[in-house]
Amino acid sequence: MIFHMQELPFLSKVEYSGSRLLSQKQIEKLLGGKKLALPMGKPADRVVLQRIALAIRLSLNDMGHPDASVRITREEASNATVTVRFEINDGPLLRVRRVSFDGHPQVSTKLLRSQMRSIAPWKPLASWRGKDAYTREAFEEDRQRILMYYQDHGFPEARIGNARVTQSAEPSRRWLPWPHESALAGLSVSVPVEAGPFYRFESIVATDALQQAARERGRNPALSSEQERGGAFSQQEIDKLRRLWIARVQSRTSELDSTTSHSVNAMRTFNPENHTARVAFDLSDSSPYIVQRTLARRPPY
Description:
Blueprint: E1 10-17, H1 24-33, H2 46-62, E2 69-76, E3 81-89, E4 95-104, H3 109-113, H4 136-151, E5 159-160, E6 164-174, E7 180-194, E8 200-206, H5 208-216, H6 235-249, E9 264-271, E10 276-283
Parallel strand pairs: 1-3, 4-7, 8-10
Antiparallel strand pairs: 2-3, 5-7, 6-7, 9-10
């Protein structure tokens, strides 16, 4: 068996070129914050190089340049050293100009837009605050906010699809040097939404075992809210009541006692015919996890 070993050249220099938006100092500051600095005099790690290229590209995406790209070139010398160059192409500036909702949202566009925090070009100073740049991470945050709104307002079966992003040209009226019409290049974001049927609470109850466990702790059972009958289904309301029940059935002692402490399950049953939901709280077979200590450690330098 013969092993063929290839010695990697040592990194002697790193260069960043091509970007009009990010200077070398800005890039080095960005990479320092992400702990992606390349040590000189050591073999160049290809994985780290790819991570650096990704960090630069994502930073440009956040600045409204979704087509930005980063190319890595290596120039090896005869003395077993290598110069790594990141060739950056900023790409065109494409801000989000329009956000629409397709499918069957069941609620107004204005209301859905109000749930968006990361991509919101209609907000004041959106460009300065980075609210008019599209990234998959930013959209995912907004998608979760929209989904939570539906689930808390009567639509437990709501579905939010992946955004469809297309380039568009929005008409704009300019006054200098003379009044004229122009087109602003940008992005149009379309979000598919299926709200599903509207559900109301039919009942919210607790099992006898759960109520008995609360009484054994000397605590009154948690009372349901006014939404117990006829109100819009709300996952937030269910979570709140579940936390109240957990507080009533856990031990008063600070130490965890698996024989006396309990967790609580929330069982939901939906009736698709009359669009009602029943919720039943019951003791869980598993013990709850209790945080006993939290430590904050200073990272090594």
